[in-house]
Task: structure prediction
Amino acid sequence: MIARQPIAVLGGGSFGTALANLLAENGQAVRLWMRDPEQAEAIRTQRENPRYLKGVKVLPGVEPVIDLAATVAGSELIFVVLPSSALRQALQPVSALLAGKMLVSTTKGIEAQSFKLMSQILEEIAPAARIGVLSGPNLAREIAEHALTATVIASEDEALCRAVQAVLHGRTFRVYASGDRFGAELGGALKNVYAIMAGMAAALGMGENTKSMLITRALAEMTRFAARLGANPMTFLGLAGVGDLIVTCTSPKSRNYQVGYALGQGLSLEEAVARLGEVAEGVNTLRVLKAKAEELGVYMPLVAGLHAILFEGRTLAQVIEALMTGEPKTDVDFISTSGF
Result:
């Protein structure tokens, strides 16, 4: 059925465009939906997404479209690549058309008011749909330029996982499967927060030891929080956990890293986001994560420290001092400390 019908990609940003190209390379007909008619026309005439992925040719198999209802009605497999703030508003009007469809969320964010992940919002909008999550160390430009990449399709629906593997797996893009949709998706959302901190550290010239410490303690925090919510901590040892965390915290191509780097250079948060020109999900996630961690009583000093810098008027030096003088905890939460 997938081979006979076009595959829909909802969202014409950098990742949506790269994903559409991947599918087209594998012989799939792709409808790339976006809100902006001018952007769609630019891709149609120039065969390039000049706003978000300049210099990358959009393949002939990718058709830019602006009619959302027709796009979802004509596709069985739909990749949702919309910002977390826009997903519910965009898809609610076409909810009746989504019943029975395979919906794969790629957005790594958390809804502020409800603390729902994107796949949970999709379940609300389309309770009769089949839901999956695509997550991993997947920088859009590298995917578009055919750097060797791997990702995870996570769902309790094994047939959905196999369908996504069949259309996405290619010579430079490897697709693994997981049954822990919640853990994979949560890892993708949480790592954005720590990428902001890593970008700040890089801009301030902090050492390699410091960067390694930040990434490792970030993984500890993420895993502790996720396990408290019921995710499998072992999921965080895979591509959707530590894999995504490493690339996001070390690459200048990461949007959240770029925001942190700008902050480290002395820009305000508003200036840093404006300079980026795209959505950095970590800024929104930080607010809701700090509140949720306090509500659940989960120890997350890096999250608390970054929140203090961005929203409470604290300096990085003050936060570092507090972090370094805090009581040391166990290195890995899920290893027994008996015998210490």
Remarks:
- The chain has 15 helices and ten strands.
- The mean pLDDT is 91.
